[in-house]
Write a structure and sequence with these properties.
Strand content: 25-35%
Shape: globular
Distance between the termini: 78 Å
Number of helices: 4
Structural class: alpha+beta
Number of strands: 6
Length: 171
């Protein structure tokens, strides 16, 4: 059915990916290309609004250094939709090639998205990506924030939570 809530939710995610103009997101100050930059964006969920978590890292556009270069960046996007459940999208652009990986928690959602994948690939081809590879995985997606998973200090801070092991070297 063309008006199925799952199809509607998936199209909203596709429009978010298209409309966000990921290369146009700005950040103040200089950033290392290996550092993730994180945003939370309100999203018109159905029946309840939700939040999209978006993280980006990559090279800066040489012509506009406050923007990312759309030909060399990595994007993580996570949203929890009422009809689709948690959805995570990983996009990796390198020159004119693009790799898109979607993760869902149930096989039935994977099968549904597979049917809609040509729409996304066609859309990405129209904006200049000549080679688009796409994959849909079924996996557990944590209910926590995407920022918790990409934070480079998380592992470092974890070392301070456990008491340090000691070694007695007295003779």
């Amino acid at each position: 059915d063309g008006n199925h809530p799952l199809r509607t939710a998936l199209r909203k995610v596709i429009h978010l990916i298209e409309g966000a103009q990921l290369s146009g997101l700005t950040q103040l100050g200089a950033a290392d290309r290996s550092d993730w930059v994180f945003w939370r964006i309100p999203f018109p969920g159905d029946p309840h609004p939700t939040t999209v978590e978006l993280a980006i890292r990559g090279d800066r556009d040489p012509e506009q250094p406050e923007r990312y270069d759309p030909r060399n960046l990595e994007v993580l996007l996570q949203v929890d939709l009422s009809v689709l459940g948690p959805l995570r999208v990983r996009i990796r652009a390198l020159n004119a090639d693009l790799r898109v990986t979607l993760s869902v928690v149930e096989t039935r959602f994977r099968d549904f998205i597979l049917k809609e994948m040509p729409i996304l690939i066609e859309s990405l081809n129209r904006v200049g990506f000549e080679k688009v590879a796409a994959d849909i995985q079924v996996e557990a997606i944590s209910a926590g924030s995407l920022a918790d998973e990409i934070d480079p200090l998380k592992g470092w801070e974890k070392r301070f939570e456990d008491p340090p092991r000691s070694l007695d070297i007295r003779l």
